[in-house]
Each structure stands twice: as C-alpha cells, then as structure tokens.
Write a sequence for this structure.
C-alpha cells in the first residue's frame, strides 16, 4: 500500500485498464474441471487464473483433530512459483498464504452445513496459477463454486470482491497496480442471498463514509459475480462436459 | 465415477484386471499399445516465460517455465542452470496429500529432468550473462488431475512449455520482466512412453485403475533418434521386453512429437 | 409446473416444512444443494454425499480381519464393521460383501453391519449415491437392462459401491454407467442406454 508513485491510476474517469470506477474485470468460471476431486472449479478473473478442488467429507486425519459434532473444514491457499511476472517463487507456504488459508476457511465455516458430517474433514485446495491482484476474492469465489459442485450442503453461495481507494476515488475490484499503488484495499465476501459479510479486511486509511460507499459498490459487484457462479454450476447440467482450457 | 476403490489387496483387483485384459481390450476400450486422447495447449500462463498444459485422457499436467538470474555451479561457471520441480497438487487426487514432496513426485520431476537434460536440447552455454551470473531456467510441473500416467503427461507438458518459451530481455545483467528477446532455441523434442505390466500383459499409457495393479512399470523417453532416459519403477522385465518397448517408444514417440508440432 | 434447477440459497418453499437438505429461515425453506424442483414441486438434489441409515443395503470390501470381527471399506468417512457373531463364513482381506446396516453411530463413526453375504470375484466401481435410483430404474428396469446386455450380474449398494461380476463385459457396463452418471438428470434414459448397448456407441 503506497500511493507514492508517478502512476496515475485514474485519468479522465478511466482506470489503467480502461475500466470505470465501478466496473469489474472480465470473469469466467467453469465448474467440474478436476474429475478426480469431489468438486472443482476454475476461474479467470482479469489476469488471475485460479483452480480449486474439494475433497470430502472424508476421514479426518489426524484422528484427534476430528470434531464429534461437525465436519472440520481445512483450506489450503497456495501461490504457484510461476504465478507472478517477477522471480520464480519459493516452494512451501508463505506467511501470506497461511493467513489467506485461514480467512478463506473462516468464510466457508459460516455457510457449509458442517453438522451433517460429524467426525469428518472437508478439504478445500486453492492453487493460484497466475496472479494479477485480488487473488483472495477470486479464490473465495471459485471455492464456493467448487463446494457446490462437490455436493456439500451450504446455506448459500458466497461471492467476493474487493473495493478500495485509488487516486482519491472509490474503486471496485482492484487490479495489481491499484493494489500496489492505491490508497486502500478492502476485500469483502458476501453470502449471496442476504449479503452477510463473511470476509472483511482492509488496509490504508478510509473514512466511515468511504467504507459505506465501498460496501455498496461491492454488494452490486457481488450480485453480478453470484450470477456468474450460478451459471457456471448450471452449465454442468445444461451443457454437459466442456473442454477445459486454461 | 468409475474409479476403483483403494482396496487393501492388490492381488484381488489384479485378478479381475487380468480377466479383462485376457479379452484383448482394456477397461476403456483401448488396445494394449494405444494412448488415450491427447490435447496440448501452449501459452496458458502469461506470467511465465513459457507454459503448456498437456492432457492425456483426463490426466492434466501444467508445465511453466521461468527464468531467474543465478550464480552458476562452481564446476560449470559458464553454463546456465536448469531445474525441474514437480507438485502433486492435493486437489488433483485423493491420493495426493498436502505437505512436502513425496517420492512419487520427486521421481516424476527427476525423470522428466533427466529426459530433457540428456537430450541436450537447450544450449546451457548460451545462458551465460557475465562472471558469476547466468540464467537459471525453472520448469515447474503441476499435476492438475490424476487419472493415471502423469509422467508422460509431464514430459509432454514440459517439452511443449519449452517450445512456448521466450528468452527474457537482459539489461545490465538483470532480467527485464515482460520483455523478451526471441524464442528459446531447442535442438530436439523429448517425449516419453510409459509401459505397465499386469500378469503377462504389457500395456501402454496406464490409467489409474491399471496403475494400481501393475507388477512392473517403466518409462522410456526418446528424442527423434535416441533414447534419452529410462526409469523403471516397480517390478522387473527381460532384456527382450526392454528392447521391444524401445521400439514401441520410438513409434509412439514420433506420434507424440507430431502432436507437439501441430 | 416446469422443472427448475435450484442452487444453494435458492428459495424452494414457503413456511416451515420438513424437506431434506433444505433449511428454514425467515418464513421460507431454502436449498442447500444443487438440485431440481420437479414438475410436482418436489426438491431433488442432484449430488449429495451418502448419509448411511439403518437397513440400507451396502456393498463393501473387507480391509481388516481380527478376532472380534472385520473392518469394511464402504467408501464413506465412516467405516463398516462386521462383528464375528454376525457372520458365519470366514471372510478374508479383499473379499467383497453385501450387507445391511444394523446401526449407525451418532457421531458418524463406525457402522455395524449384518446379513452379510460374500460376493464372487468382481470389480468394484464407485457411483454417485444421489444418482443410484437412476442406475436401478423403476422396478429395477435399468439394472435388468444392464445385466442383460452386460451379460453378467451387478449389485448396487446404497453407499455408492457397485459390484460387477468378473464374468460380465465389464468395459461395456462401465461405459453404460458413465452415460447414466452424465445424463442422470435427463429423461428417456432407458432408451439412451438401450441404444448404446445395441449400437455399441
């Protein structure tokens, strides 16, 4: 989070990639791409390419980690070493990956009906193949589709998108440069039906009024994203197996 | 649907598989020397300098190539460095557990590495930048769905990714990310063919169900005119069987090479 | 009323009703799984994990044999257990059995099995539990079709394990099952499968 650069994030109402302040990047979602998993989905969101596979409910390993009243959700968010344009990354989870794995798991603990499968674990594996800002909101969005594809009962779908501030304006869905050089980034996740906030994080400096604007903008963006999620799930039944291309 | 259960007794499943093979056809209708349908998609990942996804049947492997500036090995001060890594992503199969790489994924990485390195398809000398600075080429193999024979899919993906690779622009002994100076020159295209034995029958390109009951497994990598790597996993075979397989490996190899070039 | 696809969080009925895999909130019932509302207004989930209940018929594989009894793999996070008291023939590792669930523990632990019969040698294949009714068909019509053309015996367990006799045309039967899996939500499935067997495609 900087703000100290010569980059002009908004010129004449247009952002660096030509979007208006409340426009989403291009999003494409495909469900059922990993037949070996119980459920899966793949998302392209701007320059992000993220794949998610769900296994379970299955036996809890280690056994002592099991909860006799409900399923335990385990989430692993992982960035591939080739996901960024910069150097080849190191293998193994970074501290950032560990934090994201936790907050993403905590999103789904709210909607997955874990009481249905006591003593088991549900694994959500998220792998970022290509990153371009907003990987956590794209990850939550694709994981929700994978969980539904896996037939794991959920109260609702979850759509996630970030809002923030760049060049003194409130903007929706921050891209990589806006993330790096903007003034604030606020990723949010909503339950589709009643817009409960299931992920809330932010950095930078925002007034309460700015936060209200961001939430409203993200709610609207979230509605569009939820439509895409639903279409991806419906396509599995209405269009049958489609070829998987990255 | 259709995946066989992880039964404790391999023998029982093997007997059933042998009965199926005795009729000449495999569970998915193939004959013993055919590959499943193969699809190759190059250039999937734009953050990498080269990439490709190879699909053999439902098995999917993504290979990505990235360059970094590195110090050379002390005994080869003018040669670039070539490193292959593999990840058996836990999403790709209930058989893959999260955690550090296990022997299967390490073997897969080293086999593919050996094929490419032996084939000498890359002129590592051309990666020299200046004293103590050379280009390192990283190939990452990501198994995205495991339906059997990720080894051949990995070799295919790796070679296709190298074909897709652009050399990065170097300025002041550093890489200018996002700018490129031309394709990576390749001298040949290594491919691999994996053979498995169930009872007394040999099959090419085993699917997961077949892999679980193999007595012997062996991978043979070839360039246009040479064998460049062999890796025998479990089991044993006779010299004549090996020589027969080499013939089949060359034959299937040229088909695979055609697919890479199409 | 036309058939409609519903997703988790979609409203499926008013008021508080007892609908499996639906929950009550704010005066209405909402779906928790992808499914269809059929012409009669009933909510039918398409994919749902198997929930073992008493008296279910299951197919399983013996994975451990001890003095007290046998452990059985049922493809579920809960394993099965056959107490030695409830089976007369001696079972071995790798044996495929058909049995009935005598009881399910509350915390999702082991299931006690009884009425155990050993099945002859064959292949076990996994089939999505929510689609098993289509694999069996009305009055077992689909199953009989498969047995006839597949030239062999098949046993379907509620737990999603299907045993196929190794005397049958296993590749053909598996292909038919694949078609049923992919087209489970469509109509005219019996015709589709008959056509597949007769034309071999």
């Amino acid at each position: 989070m900087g703000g100290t650069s010569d980059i002009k994030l908004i010129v004449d109402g247009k952002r660096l990639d030509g979007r208006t302040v409340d426009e989403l990047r291009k999003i494409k979602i495909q469900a059922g791409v990993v037949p070996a998993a119980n459920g899966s989905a793949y998302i392209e969101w701007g320059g992000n390419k993220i794949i998610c596979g769900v296994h379970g409910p299955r036996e809890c390993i280690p056994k002592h980690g099991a909860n006799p009243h409900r399923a335990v959700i385990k989430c692993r968010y992982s960035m591939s070493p080739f996901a960024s344009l910069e150097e080849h990354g190191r293998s193994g989870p970074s501290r950032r990956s560990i934090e994201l794995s936790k907050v993403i798991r905590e999103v789904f603990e709210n909607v997955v009906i874990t009481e249905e499968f006591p003593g088991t674990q549900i694994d959500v594996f998220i792998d970022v193949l290509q990153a371009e800002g907003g990987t956590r909101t794209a990850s939550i969005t694709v994981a929700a589709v994978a969980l539904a594809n896996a037939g794991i009962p959920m109260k609702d779908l979850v759509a996630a998108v970030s809002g923030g501030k760049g060049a003194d304006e409130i903007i929706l869905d921050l891209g990589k440069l806006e993330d790096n050089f903007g003034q604030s980034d606020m990723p949010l996740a909503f339950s589709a039906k009643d817009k409960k906030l299931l992920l809330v994080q932010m950095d930078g400096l925002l007034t309460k009024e700015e936060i209200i604007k961001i939430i409203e903008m993200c709610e609207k963006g979230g509605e569009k994203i939820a439509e895409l999620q639903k279409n991806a799930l419906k396509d599995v039944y209405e269009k049958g197996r489609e070829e998987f291309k990255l | 649907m259709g995946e066989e259960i992880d039964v404790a007794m391999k023998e029982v499943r093997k007997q059933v598989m042998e009965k199926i093979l005795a009729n000449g056809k495999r569970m998915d209708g193939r004959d013993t020397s055919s590959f499943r349908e193969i699809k190759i998609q190059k250039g999937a990942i734009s953050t990498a300098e080269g990439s490709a996804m190879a699909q053999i049947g439902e098995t999917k492997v993504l290979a990505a190539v990235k360059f970094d500036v590195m110090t050379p090995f002390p005994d080869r001060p003018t040669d670039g460095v070539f490193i292959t890594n593999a990840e058996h992503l836990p999403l790709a199969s209930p058989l893959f557990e999260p955690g550090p790489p296990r022997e299967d994924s390490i073997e897969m990485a080293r086999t593919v590495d050996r094929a490419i390195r032996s084939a000498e398809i890359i002129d590592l000398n051309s990666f020299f930048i200046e004293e103590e600075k050379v280009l390192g080429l990283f190939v990452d193999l990501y198994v995205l769905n495991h339906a059997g024979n990720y080894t051949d899919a990995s070799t295919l993906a790796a070679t296709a990714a190298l074909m897709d690779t652009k050399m990065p622009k170097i300025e002041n002994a550093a890489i200018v990310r996002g700018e490129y100076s031309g394709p990576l020159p390749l001298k040949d295209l290594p491919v691999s063919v994996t053979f498995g034995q169930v009872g007394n029958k040999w099959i090419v390109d085993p699917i997961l169900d077949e892999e679980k009951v193999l007595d012997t497994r062996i991978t043979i990598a070839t360039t246009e005119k040479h064998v460049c790597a062999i890796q025998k996993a479990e089991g044993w075979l006779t010299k004549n069987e090996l020589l027969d397989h080499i013939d089949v490996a060359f034959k299937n190899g040229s088909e695979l090479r055609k697919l890479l070039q199409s | 009323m036309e058939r409609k696809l519903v997703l988790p969080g979609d409203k499926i009925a008013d008021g508080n009703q007892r609908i499996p895999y639906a929950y009550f909130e704010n005066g209405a019932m909402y779906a928790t799984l992808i499914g269809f509302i059929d012409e009669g207004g009933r909510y039918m989930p398409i994919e749902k994990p198997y929930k073992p209940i008493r008296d279910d018929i299951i197919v399983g594989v013996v994975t451990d044999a001890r003095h007290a009894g046998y452990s059985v793999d049922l493809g579920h996070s809960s394993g099965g257990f056959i107490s030695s008291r409830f089976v007369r023939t001696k079972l071995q590792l790798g044996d495929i059995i058909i049995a009935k669930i005598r009881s399910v523990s509350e915390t999702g632990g082991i299931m006690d099995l009884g009425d155990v019969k050993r099945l002859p040698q064959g292949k076990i294949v996994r089939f999505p539990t929510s689609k098993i009714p289509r694999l069996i068909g009305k009055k077992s019509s689909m199953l009989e079709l498969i047995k006839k053309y597949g030239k062999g015996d098949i046993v379907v367990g509620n737990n999603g394990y299907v045993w196929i006799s190794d005397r049958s045309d296993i590749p053909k039967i598996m292909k038919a099952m694949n078609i049923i899996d992919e087209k489970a939500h469509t109509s005219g499935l019996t015709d589709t499968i008959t056509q597949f067997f007769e034309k071999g495609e």
Observations:
- The mean pLDDT of chain C is 89.
- DSSP finds four helices and 14 strands in chain C.
- Residues 7 and 34 of chain C are 4 Å apart (CA to CA).
